[in-house]
Amino acid sequence: MCGTNMNDRKRLLFLSALLFLALAAGGPMVIAADGDANGGGDPAIKKNFNAAARVKMGTYQDMREITAAIKRDDANMTVIEIRWLTPNDVVVQAAWRKESSPAGIYYYTLRNENTGWRITERYLDHIS
Fold this sequence. Notes:
Elements: H1 6-25, E1 29-31, E2 37-39, H2 44-51, H3 60-73, E3 77-86, E4 89-96, E5 104-113, E6 116-127
Antiparallel strand pairs: 1-2, 1-6, 3-4, 4-5, 5-6
């Protein structure tokens, strides 16, 4: 780990612990927007992503704000795809990667409220 800062080390330890817990629970982990891990959670968010519309129901500005909300959650996230449940509810597939650290695939749900797009759930699908 030579040349990495403390935040990178903490994130790697956190991801390693999540991987261990996921393997021990026999399935993926659900991580709420507040950062609490709940082992063996329901992967309904992934099912919602698969069932959601690829046709956008929002504006280009909505897409920019959704991406910005995910970047605020973690600057190392890259949005892969946004799918629409309603004009005010989306499911987003995103990837986390930093240099040589493991890559993680996440699913987010976001809701457009009076204050803008807000993350309501974050689900760690897998680490590769």
